[in-house]
Amino acid sequence: MSEHTHAVVWLDHREARVFHFNATDVESLVIHPDKPSHHLHHKHGSIGSGHAKEDKEYFHKVAQAISDASAILVTGPANAKTELVKYVQAHMPAVAKAIAAVETLDHPSSGEIVAHARKFFGRDHLAPPRIKH
């Protein structure tokens, strides 16, 4: 995926959709946790937060998938996106430096995720560098 310097990842606790892209092309990858969490419901008076536990192996796989990007947008509907960023900051500081933003996106299609990321980074930023002779 060396042709693409930008990445966007959309994730929740059940899957991560990773896209490496430029202005005209995109490559995608879907990552699932080894032990997917089930949707948790918190009941009044019960013990626990009602949130899925952090899956460090899952976050490591996602971080590895975006580690070659020089600019990264992290998106998702709930807490998984911020948990991924905390994991990356603690364990992969070079990747953390490439994270441009973290945004909430509910459940968009793959095309909508890439379109959002291209708009976020802007067409000029995605253009390949010009070689001067």
> By helix and strand content, what is the structural category?
alpha/beta
Q: In one word, what is the shape?
A: globular
**Sheet having the most strands:** 5 strands, mixed
Strand order of the largest sheet: 3-2-1-4-5
- Average pLDDT, rounded to a whole number, is 85
CATH architecture: 2-Layer Sandwich
Taking all Cα atoms into account, the compactness measure Rg is 16 Å
Low-confidence stretches: 38-42
Strand residue percentage:
15-25%
Provide an overview of this structure.
By secondary structure, this protein is of the alpha/beta class. It has one domain: eRF1 domain 2 (Nucleotidyltransferase, domain 5, 2-Layer Sandwich), CATH 3.30.420.60. Helices cover 34% and strands 23% of the residues. Strands 3-2-1-4-5 form a 5-stranded mixed β-sheet, with helices on both faces. Strand 2 and strand 3 form a beta hairpin. The radius of gyration is 16 Å and the shape is globular. About 4% of the residues have low confidence.
